[in-house]
Amino acid sequence: MLTKPWTFQNSAACRGMNLDETFFSFKPEGIALAKKTCSGCPVKAECLEYAMENRIDFGVFGGLTDKERRPKRECR
Predict the structure, then answer these.
(1) Which is nearest to 24 in space by CA: 54, 70, 56?
(2) Cα angle: 20, vertex 52, 10; to 5 degrees
(3) DSSP three-state, residue 66
(4) From CA 61, how far away is CA 38, in angstroms rounded?
(5) Are residues 48 and 63 in contact, defined by beta-carbon separation less than 8 angstroms?
(6) At the N or C end, where does the chain have fewer CB atoms within 10 A?
(7) Whole-number Å distance between alpha carbons of 27 and 51
(8) Closest among 42, 40, 38, 37 to 62, alpha carbons compared
(9) pTM for the complete prediction?
(10) How far apart are alpha carbons 9 and 14 in whole angstroms?
(11) Cα-flanking dihedrals φ and ψ of residue 38, to 5°?
(12) Cβ contact 27:2 at 8 Å
């Protein structure tokens, strides 16, 4: 169960993009595009916090893959 609504998405740089092909991709080019999109996103921090608080274990959130978020989550 998610702890907070995902309200920041209305201001996200990824709004309107095909999230499945980029942010939830196994392909390196999809992951690279997701990270590039996140790099200039005005709500990058909120997105990352959302993924961390809700323990989302797949996809790119706040510019980090699930594997990159895992060590940060374990430190909390």
Answers:
(1) 56
(2) 55
(3) helix
(4) 8
(5) yes
(6) N
(7) 20
(8) 38
(9) 0.84
(10) 8
(11) -65, -30
(12) no
| Phi, psi dihedrals of residue 70, rounded to the nearest 5° | -50, -50
Residue 61, helix vs strand vs coil = strand
Q: Give CA 67 to chain center in angstroms.
A: 12
Q: Directed axis angle between helix 44-53 and helix 66-74, to 10°?
A: 70
Per-residue model confidence (pLDDT) at position 7 = 80
* Segment 72-76 mean pLDDT: 63
What is the residue whose two structure tokens read 């909120």? 46
pLDDT tens digits for range 28-68: 999 999 999 999 999 999 999 999 988 998 999 999 999 99
State how far the Cα of 13 lies from the Cα of 6, in Å rounded to an integer: 14
**Amino acid, res. 26:** F
Q: Which structure tokens are listed for 24? A: 């939830």
Q: Are 65 and 52 in contact (CB under 8 A)?
A: no
